[in-house]
Amino acid sequence: MSEQHPPGGMPPSPPQWMAMAPAPPGPRGRNGFAVASLILGILGICGFSLVLGLIFGIVALVQIGKSGQAGRGMAIAGIVLSVLWVGALTVGVIVLVKKTELLATTPTIVALQPGECYNTPAAYGLDATKVSCAEPHDGEAFATVPLKGYVAGEYPGEETLEAQAKAGCEAQRATVFGPGYTPPVEASVGVFYPDSKAWLAGKSAAVCTFQVTSDKQFTGPLRH
């Protein structure tokens, strides 16, 4: 059977396919918030910049997830640096507060240096007020004795420190004043060593003093 053609004698044209439009080009370049986050993270110690570094890093990750821009690693680095700065500054503030608490009692006897004089409060203890040795006073520091612990970073205990301090102060008394020295008023050798708080804050020496034992005070510096 012969093939039939439509009027005009020409076979039908094959279907024509339209070319698909090319996809729009993807986003290029790094995300600006990611760059800013990294820079601010590096400068985090400047204060408020660490907060902005953290915020910009989070914004960058959200935008990069939607746009596909580069800079994800920079954003993550900015966030991590900001968090590390927050941790470091927090630790620094805690240490500063602890040291301030230790030195806030103007000063304690364990902070006195040889030749410095002090008055003690009515409730006798480590707290003292430093005064001029030319004024009436309750005691005078004449030496310090280094103390040793057994384990670094651990308080060795009062008995251990007291034994070291007493032996050291008695030796220093003879060295500083000479044998047979008698104070001008009734007094005895006072031995003051750091408590656990002071020890952990870095004070590792005992202070040797002459402390009055009656109502009469020293009125001038001791001879040494």
UniProtKB/TrEMBL annotation:
Transmembrane annotation, as ranges: 33-62, 74-97
Keywords in alphabetical order: Membrane, Transmembrane, Transmembrane helix
InterPro entries, A to Z: DUF4190 (IPR025241), Septum_form (IPR026004)
Claim: Transmembrane is one of the keywords in the record: yes
Septum formation-related domain boundaries: 115-216
Lineage: superkingdom: Bacteria
Residues in DUF4190 domain copies: 34-90
Region listing for Disordered, in residue ranges: 1-23
Protein's name in the database: Septum formation
